[in-house]
Design a protein that fits this description.
Number of domains of chain A: 2
Number of strands of chain B: 3
InterPro entries (chain B): NIF_FeS_clus_asmbl_NifU_N
Number of helices of chain A: 13
Protein name (chain B): Iron-sulfur cluster assembly scaffold protein
CATH superfamily of the largest domain in chain A: Type I PLP-dependent aspartate aminotransferase-like (Major domain)
Radius of gyration of chain B: 14 Å
Bound molecules: pyridoxal-5'-phosphate, FE2/S2 (inorganic) cluster
Helix content of chain A: 40-55%
Helix content of chain B: 40-55%
Organism (chain B): Candidatus Nealsonbacteria bacterium RIFCSPLOWO2_01_FULL_43_32
Strand order of the largest sheet of chain A: 2-8-7-6-5-3-4
CATH architecture of chain B: Alpha-Beta Complex
CATH topology of the largest domain in chain A: Aspartate Aminotransferase, domain 2
Number of strands of chain A: 12
Distance between the termini of chain B: 55 Å
Pfam families (chain B): NifU_N (PF01592)
Largest interface: A-B, 22 and 26 residues
Shape of chain B: globular
GO molecular function (chain B): iron ion binding; iron-sulfur cluster binding
Oligomer: heterodimer
Chain lengths: ~400, ~130
């Protein structure tokens, strides 16, 4: 039986057009952007073009785009690079407990260095409120980092409103958003959002793995994490991954294609139908996260009396790839930090299944999931002795 | 490609042979795994034969990951028909060995089954003293 992939928040397959765009740079056009001969200059031209594509998408200047080796690196650069560049002796940082580890861990690192970090509360739906942001802002706040859309429950934060609030309070406070999961679906115009830094990743948008980018607004003080040949305006030394960067730009162009905008509407319809059907067919199941402020491709449901990991393994045996939440769960036993922050008990947080849809998803895929999932839950409840 | 779980783990996870509850159990053990919060309940039926105490039947409920379920079932398989003494000598390495192998992060899951057995035996001892 054909495999069904429903884990698009973890990663996506390469779009064939993206692959085509990358190919020359893996073959004959292999130059180093720092070389002054034609082959090198051709590579430089390719990444300049890519930079222009991202600038167009984000509504910023081309020189405000820094290519990195991953979104993780971009997040690290945003958080560590800005805070370590400020002269303030007691900098204060605001973030949320539902960020990706690529933001949380650099924040923990800052805490170890004596920086004060505030973690905003989120409500039962995983949303940050403006009032809480306002309360948390202090005279020594230098950075606010809040993700645009959450990777586990798909919660979309009111970034634009938060951006306005921050700038109204003090134009000196930097505002960063991790837009990795949002790029495919939401408006990422940095001016509209009011952000000074924005992270994106190629492999979540049908581009290659190992490429990310950070938008850094002109004039912002930021310290590099990597020193060397001074590429990427000195913020990210190392010979550029030309094919990867070209792939990232090509993936962004695909997002701008109206065909994919229409597809996103379809994805949302699939999502709504899937959520409705699962909750109808399977008792004692509930949707995690907001129904309104939710990514069009995200379904996250908890089943009482069952552990998410067991569901994922059982689905895999039926040829369906899904997830418990974060892709890192294979490296950690702890229940989802996102669900815990949303106020769920440990048991509830252990029972979640994340299904994320993508461009190739068909109604037939979801029908099959709907057929396979109920008996799996029933069986696992038998195993746990769960009484309905 | 090496799959995340061995064939044996998948088999015991999908088709556990010792699933359920013993209504007239002589001992019941309920344990939680501190590492991950998973819960297991173990029921044993003990028969005395020439001053030996033999685990005649054993069943379990487990709320946990695939490894927790598979190791619960395997532990039941391993101790069924053995004396309590023999059963308590089985350690987690034996359980893991019988299942082929477990991913390193999942080794602790096999400890749950052993703790469950210990708790069930303790419960049996308490009850049989009365
Ligand atoms: C919200 C979010 N931020 C950051 C990352 C890390 O991206 P990358 O894999 O490019 O490092 C991910 C994906 O794992 C993510 O979902
Ligand atoms: S991770 Fe919980 S016992 Fe396996």
């Amino acid at each position: 039986m054909a495999k069904i992939y429903l884990d698009y928040a973890a990663t996506t397959p390469l779009n064939p057009n993206v692959f085509k765009a990358m190919l020359p740079y893996l073959k004959q056009d292999f130059g180093n952007t720092s070389s002054i001969h034609s082959l090198g200059q051709q590579a430089l031209g390719a990444i300049d073009e890519a930079r222009a594509v991202l600038a167009d998408f984000l509504g910023c200047d081309a020189q405000e785009i820094i290519f990195t080796g991953s979104a993780t690196e971009a997040n690290n650069l945003a958080v560590l690079g800005t805070v370590q560049a400020v002269k303030n002796k007691q900098p204060h940082v605001i973030t949320t407990p539902i960020e990706h580890h690529a933001v949380l861990e650099p924040c923990r690192e800052l805490e170890k260095q004596g920086v004060e970090v505030s973690y905003l509360p989120v409500d039962k739906e995983g949303l940050v409120t403006l009032a809480d942001v306002k309360k948390a802002l202090k005279p020594n706040t230098v950075l606010v980092s809040i993700m645009y859309a959450n990777n586990e429950v798909g919660a979309i934060q009111p970034i634009q409103e938060i951006g306005q609030l921050i700038k109204k309070t003090s134009p000196k406070i930097l505002f960063h958003t991790d837009a990795v999961q949002a790029v495919n679906y939401l408006d990422c115009n940095v001016e509209k959002l009011g952000v000074d830094l924005l992270t994106l990743s190629a492999h979540k948008i049908y581009g290659p793995k190992g490429v990310g980018a950070l938008f850094v607004k002109n004039g912002i003080l930021i310290k590099p994490l990597i020193y060397g040949g001074g590429q990427e305006a000195g913020l990210r030394s190392g010979t550029e991954n030309v094919a990867g960067i070209v792939g990232l730009a090509s993936a962004i162009k695909e997002i701008q294609n109206p065909k994919h905008k229409i597809q996103n509407i379809r994805t949302r319809q699939f999502r709504d139908k899937l959520i409705k059907n699962i909750l109808k067919i399977i008792p004692d199941a509930h949707l995690n996260g907001s129904l309104v402020h939710r990514l069009p491709n995200n379904v996250n449901i908890s089943f009482r009396g069952v552990e998410g990991e067991a569901i994922v393994i059982a689905l895999d045996q039926k040829g369906i790839a899904a997830s418990t939440g974060s892709a890192c769960s294979s490296k950690s036993l702890e229940p989802s930090h996102v669900l815990l922050a949303m106020g769920f008990s440990e048991e509830e947080a252990h029972g979640s299944l994340r299904i994320t849809l993508g461009r190739p998803t068909t109604p037939k895929d979801l029908e099959r999931l709907l057929k396979v999932l109920p008996p799996i839950i029933q069986k696992l409840r038998q195993i746990s002795g769960y009484q309905l | 490609m090496k799959p995340y779980y061995s064939k044996q783990v998948i088999e015991h996870f999908l088709h556990p042979k010792n699933l359920g509850k013993l209504k007239d159990a002589d001992g019941v053990g309920k344990v939680g795994n501190p590492a991950c919060g998973d819960v297991m309940e173990l029921f044993i039926k003990v028969e005395k034969k020439n001053s030996k105490e033999i685990i005649k039947d054993i069943k379990f409920y487990t709320l946990g990951c695939a490894a927790a379920i598979a190791t619960s079932d395997m532990a039941c398989e391993l101790v069924k028909g053995k004396t309590i003494q023999e059963a308590l000598e089985i350690n987690y390495q034996d359980i893991v060995g019988e299942l082929g192998d477990l991913p390193p992060i999942k080794i602790h899951c096999s400890v749950l089954a052993r703790e469950g057995l210990k708790a069930a035996v303790e419960d049996y001892r308490k009850k049989s003293k009365k």
